[in-house]
Specification:
The structure holds two protein chains of two kinds.
Chain A: H1 2-30, H2 40-44, H3 53-71, E1 73-74, E2 80-81, E3 84-86, E4 89-91, H4 93-116, H5 123-158, H6 160-166, H7 170-184, H8 190-195, H9 202-209, H10 213-232, H11 235-252
Antiparallel strand pairs in A: 1-2, 3-4
Chain B: H1 2-24, H2 39-47, H3 58-68, H4 71-74, E1 108-119, H5 133-140, H6 152-168, H7 176-181, E2 187-203, E3 206-222, H8 225-235, H9 240-250, E4 252-258, E5 261-271, E6 280-289, E7 293-297, H10 315-322, H11 325-350, E8 362-372, E9 385-396, E10 399-405, H12 409-417, H13 427-442, E11 445-452, E12 454-466, E13 470-481, E14 485-487, H14 493-496, H15 501-504, E15 509-523, E16 528-542, E17 548-557
Antiparallel strand pairs in B: 1-2, 1-17, 2-3, 3-4, 3-5, 4-7, 5-6, 6-8, 8-9, 9-12, 10-11, 11-14, 12-13, 13-15, 15-16, 16-17
The chains are: A mainly alpha, B alpha+beta.
Chain lengths: 253, 558
C-alpha cells in the first residue's frame, strides 16, 4: 500500500509537470502574435535589398532599445532598472505612465474633496489648500514633462539609423504598418500617423504631437510590437541573423 | 522495490520527453531570439552596430529585375519597329523650278524664287498592310508605325508588371499603357523657306541650267492641340516656357545653308519649222553635285549628332545611390539623362537631315516635250496653249552615310534563352548582360554604311498658256524613288549577321502632286522680267509625306 501511494505521488508529480508544461505551451500558442501576410514579405524576406541578416539585427536592436525604455534594463539580480531619472528614482516608461496617471487621479480626487468640503475650511485656508494641491500637481507634472522631453530626444537619437534605412521604402513599410494595425484591431494609433509623415518630418512630429507619457508609451509599445511581428514574419531574415550570431560566437571562442 | 524503480524510471522518462516536446514546439530553432532575458542575443545586439548602408549585390538586383520588373520579358520586346531615315524629295527635283517658259528676249535667264515648303505629316514608313486605305496612310505618318508604342505583346508584359506592383503598393496608380498611347500619333513635321537660284543659258541650240537653293530648314516632332491637352490632363500642366525650352533642346532640329547644285543641259532632237510654235522634243542630261553645306545649325532648335559611342549604365551604382537620401537625386539625374540622350538619339535619326541628298552624286537623263495644242486641234484661240512635259530618270551613286540598326528579334531571343538568371555564380555576368540589352533597346547602333539610294523617276505634265504679257501653267507631276540598298556596314564582324538591315532601309516612295503657276511678263529696255506665283500640293503619296509649296519667282531674261 505504501509503495502504491509512493508510486502514484511520484508519477503524478512527473505527469503534472509535463501536463503543466504542455498547458503552458498551449497557453503561449493561444497568445502567439500574428504574422504579416502582405505579398511584399516574400519579396523582401532574406533578400540583400530587403530584410537580410543585418537589417533583421537592426530591427531586433531597435525593438530591444524600445523595450529597455518601456520596461527597464534587465539587471543581474533578475529585476529591471528604469532608464529615466524622476527625482531620486530610476523609472521606466511604464512606471512613469503610472505615476502620471496617479498624479492626475490624485489631483482630481483632492480637488474634488476640497470642492465638496468647502464649508469645512475658512476662505483663505481653503485657497491655501488649493494652492498647495495645485503646486504639488504642477511640480510633478513639470518633472514628468521634462522626463518626457528627455525620453523623446533619446528615442529620436537611437532610431536615427532605422529611419534613414527605411526612408527609401517608406510607402511599402506603411502598408505593413496598416496590416499590423488592422490585425491588432487598432483603428488609429500614433504609429500609423508617424509612419505616414514626410521623410525628415518624423522627429518634429514626435516633438510636437506627443504630449503625455501615456501617449508616448502607447506609441513605443505599438512600435515594439510591430517590429516583433515584422521580424517574426521574415523567417529567412531571422535565419541569416542567427547565422551571424553563431559566427560571432564561434569567432569569440 | 525493483518494480517500483522500474515504474518510476519509465514515468520519469515519459515526463522528460513531454518536456522536450514542449521545448521544441515553438519552432524558433536553437534559442528564442525575442526573449529579453536571452543574454547571447542581448549581448550581441548591445555590442554591435548594424550598418544599414545597403551595398547592392548583383544577385539582389537580378532578383528585383527578373522577379518583379520582368526585365527579361520586357527586353525581348521590340521598341524600334523601324530604324530607317525619312524619305524626302530634293528641292532640285521640284517642278516649280523647271524654268520652262518661252524666254524669247535673250539667251540668258537669271532667276531667284522665294519659296516656302511645308510637310505637315512626314511618313515614317510604308503604309501598313491592314486597315482601310485612308487609315493605312495615316498610320504611316504616326510614330506608332516606327516605335512600338501600341504593341499588344508589350502591353501584355506591362499589364502583368502593373498588377504585381499594385499588389505590393496598392496606391500605385500610373497607367503606363495609357501614357504610351498618348504619344502614339505624334508625327514629324518639316518646313523649309529660302531662295532658289537658277541660271539658264542658251548657246546655239543647247540649253543649260544651273540651280541651287539657299534655305532654312526646320524639322520637329509634332502633336495636335488635342493630343497635347490629353497629355497635360494625364501628367499635369507644365510651364509653357519650360515646355518650349525642352522642345528646342530635344525635339526640334534646324539649319541654314546651301543645298546641292543641279546642272542640266538639253538639245532639241526634233523641232518644227516654227521655233516656239511647233512640236519640240529635247533630250538632255543632268547631274546633281553634292555641294550642300550647313552655314548655321541649331538656330532655334538643336543640332543632333549620331550617337556612335555606346552609353553605359550600371544598375548596381544606381540601386546603391537610390537607397541614400544624399545620392538619390544623383541616381534620378543619371536615369533622366539616359532617357533624354535616348530621345536625342531618336531626334538625330528622324529629325536631323542634310540640306542636300547626303553627298550622293547623281546622273540622269531627261526628255522634254512641248506640243502646241493647235497642232492637234486647229483653233486660233489655242495658239498660245501648249502641253509641256518632262520625263527624267536619275541614278544616285552610292555614298557613305550614318545608318541606325537594331539587332534581329530571333538573335535577342536566342541570347536570352541561353541565360540562367538563377545561377548565383553568374549573377555579375547576367547583370552586365541585362545592362547591355537595356542600352541596346533604347540606343540603336549607329554605323557608317554604304548606301545606294537607287533611281529617281519624275514625270511632269503641264497645260501651259503663255501670251505676250502673262501666262498660266496647270498640271501635275509624279515622282518616285526606288528602295535603297545598304552595304558595307562598318560594324564588328561578329555583329553584322545579327543586325536587322531591313528595318534600316528606306521604303520606296512615290508622290503625285498637283501644281499651278501664274506669271506676268514685263518688257524692259534690256530685258524681260517674269514675276510668277507658283504653288503645288501633293495629293497622293507612299512612303513619303504630302507637302505643299508656294513660291514667288523672279526671272530676268536678258
Amino acid at each position: 500500500m505504501r509503495k502504491v501511494v509512493l508510486c502514484s505521488i511520484i508519477s503524478s508529480i512527473c505527469f503534472s509537470s509535463s501536463i503543466f508544461a504542455v498547458a503552458d505551451e498551449r497557453a503561449k500558442k493561444a497568445g502567439k502574435s500574428f504574422l504579416l501576410e502582405s505579398p511584399m514579405i516574400p519579396v523582401v524576406d532574406g533578400k540583400s535589398y530587403g530584410v537580410h541578416g543585418r537589417v533583421f539585427g537592426l530591427i531586433l536592436q531597435n525593438r530591444r532599445e524600445i523595450r529597455k525604455r518601456l520596461y527597464g534594463v534587465p539587471a543581474k539580480n533578475g529585476g529591471r532598472i528604469g532608464m529615466f531619472q524622476l527625482g531620486d528614482n530610476r523609472c521606466c516608461l511604464v512606471e512613469l505612465g503610472r505615476i502620471e496617471s496617479e498624479n492626475e487621479a490624485e489631483y482630481l480626487s483632492k480637488l474634488n474633496y476640497l470642492e465638496s468640503n468647502r464649508l469645512k475650511y475658512a476662505a483663505d485656508e481653503w485657497q491655501e489648500e488649493k494652492d498647495a494641491i495645485e503646486k504639488e500637481y504642477r511640480g510633478t507634472k513639470a518633472q514628468l514633462e521634462e522626463v518626457l522631453d528627455e525620453a523623446k530626444e533619446d528615442f529620436i537619437n537611437f532610431t536615427q539609423d532605422y529611419l534613414e534605412g527605411i526612408n527609401g521604402v517608406k510607402e511599402p513599410v506603411l502598408v505593413l504598418v496598416e496590416e499590423f494595425c488592422e490585425k491588432k484591431g487598432i483603428e488609429w494609433c500614433f504609429l500609423l500617423h508617424w509612419g505616414g509623415a514626410e521623410a525628415g518630418a518624423e522627429h518634429e512630429m514626435i516633438r510636437q504631437d506627443i504630449k503625455t507619457i501615456k501617449e508616448f508609451t502607447g506609441f513605443c509599445r505599438d512600435l515594439s510590437d510591430f517590429l516583433e511581428v515584422l521580424a517574426k514574419s521574415c523567417p529567412k531574415g531571422k535565419q541569416l541573423f542567427i547565422d551571424i550570431v553563431k559566427k560571432a560566437k564561434q569567432a569569440k571562442k | 522495490m525493483k518494480k517500483f524503480l522500474q515504474v518510476f524510471f519509465i514515468l520519469f522518462l515519459f515526463s522528460i520527453s513531454n518536456f522536450s516536446i514542449a521545448d521544441e514546439s515553438d519552432g524558433l530553432g536553437d534559442f528564442d531570439i525575442f526573449a529579453d532575458d536571452n543574454t547571447l542575443v542581448g549581448d550581441f545586439l548591445d555590442n554591435n552596430e548594424f550598418e544599414i548602408t545597403r551595398q547592392s549585390t548583383p544577385e539582389g538586383i537580378l532578383e528585383i529585375l527578373i522577379d518583379i520588373v520582368k526585365a527579361d520579358r520586357i527586353l525581348q520586346e521590340d521598341i524600334f519597329l523601324r530604324t530607317n531615315r525619312l524619305n524626302k524629295r530634293s528641292l532640285l527635283d521640284n517642278s516649280l523650278f523647271l524654268m520652262d517658259k518661252d524666254y524669247c528676249y535673250g539667251n540668258w535667264i537669271l532667276g531667284v524664287s522665294l519659296f516656302f515648303d511645308q510637310t505637315s505629316r512626314m511618313h515614317f514608313t510604308k503604309p501598313c498592310s491592314t486597315g482601310k486605305r485612308k487609315q493605312k496612310y495615316e498610320i504611316a505618318s504616326c510614330i506608332k508605325s516606327y516605335l512600338a508604342l501600341t504593341s499588344p505583346t508589350l502591353f501584355c508584359v506591362i499589364k502583368d508588371l502593373e498588377s504585381e506592383i499594385k499588389e505590393l503598393l496598392p496606391d500605385f496608380d500610373i497607367d503606363c499603357i495609357r501614357a504610351l498611347c498618348l504619344f502614339k500619333n505624334a508625327t514629324a513635321q518639316e518646313r523649309s523657306a529660302g531662295l532658289f537660284f537658277s541660271f539658264m543659258g542658251k548657246i546655239r541650240k543647247f540649253n543649260f541650267r544651273f540651280k541651287a537653293p539657299f534655305y532654312y530648314k526646320i524639322r520637329n516632332f509634332f502633336l495636335t492641340d488635342e493630343e497635347r491637352k490629353a497629355i497635360s490632363r494625364e501628367f499635369g500642366e507644365s510651364d509653357e516656357k519650360e515646355g518650349m525650352k525642352f522642345a528646342r533642346r530635344h525635339i526640334i532640329s534646324d539649319q541654314l545653308g546651301l543645298g546641292d547644285l543641279r546642272f542640266d543641259f538639253d538639245y532639241p532632237v526634233y523641232a518644227g519649222c516654227r521655233v516656239g510654235r511647233d512640236l519640240e522634243v529635247r533630250l538632255g542630261m543632268f547631274s546633281t553635285i553634292p555641294t550642300n553645306v550647313a552655314v548655321v545649325k541649331g538656330l532655334y532648335g538643336n543640332c543632333f549628332k549620331p550617337i556612335c559611342c555606346r552609353p553605359s549604365i550600371s544598375f548596381l551604382d544606381i540601386f546603391d545611390m537610390l537607397q541614400h537620401d544624399n545620392t538619390r537625386q544623383q541616381a534620378i539625374t543619371i536615369a533622366k539623362n539616359f532617357a533624354l540622350n535616348a530621345l536625342n538619339g531618336i531626334s538625330s535619326l528622324l529629325l536631323d537631315s542634310s540640306l542636300g541628298n547626303n553627298r550622293h552624286f547623281g546622273l540622269g537623263f531627261m526628255s522634254k516635250t512641248k506640243i502646241p495644242f493647235r497642232s492637234i486641234f486647229n483653233r486660233s484661240w489655242l495658239g498660245n496653249v501648249f502641253y509641256r512635259g518632262k520625263l527624267s530618270l536619275e541614278y544616285l551613286f552610292s555614298a557613305k552615310e550614318y545608318r541606325w540598326f537594331v539587332e534581329k528579334n530571333d538573335v535577342i531571343a536566342a541570347q536570352f534563352a541561353v541565360r540562367d538568371f538563377e545561377d548565383e555564380d553568374k549573377a555579375a555576368e547576367n547583370l552586365a548582360f541585362l545592362e547591355t540589352m537595356f542600352t541596346d533597346k533604347f540606343y540603336p547602333f549607329v554605323y557608317k554604311s554604304k548606301v545606294y539610294p537607287g533611281f529617281i523617276f519624275t514625270w511632269v505634265a503641264k497645260l501651259a498658256y503663255e501670251s505676250k504679257r502673262w501666262g498660266i501653267h496647270l498640271g501635275w507631276d509624279a515622282w518616285a524613288q526606288t528602295r535603297e540598298k545598304i552595304d558595307e556596314i562598318c560594324a564588328k564582324k561578329g555583329q553584322l549577321a545579327s543586325l536587322d538591315v531591313e528595318k534600316a532601309r528606306r521604303p520606296w516612295a512615290f508622290q503625285w502632286t498637283l501644281l499651278g503657276s501664274v506669271f506676268f511678263k514685263t518688257e524692259r529696255r534690256k530685258s524681260n522680267l517674269y514675276v510668277g506665283l507658283n504653288a503645288e500640293k501633293t495629293v497622293s503619296s507612299r512612303g513619303i509625306g504630302r507637302p505643299f509649296k508656294v513660291t514667288l519667282s523672279f526671272e530676268r531674261n536678258f
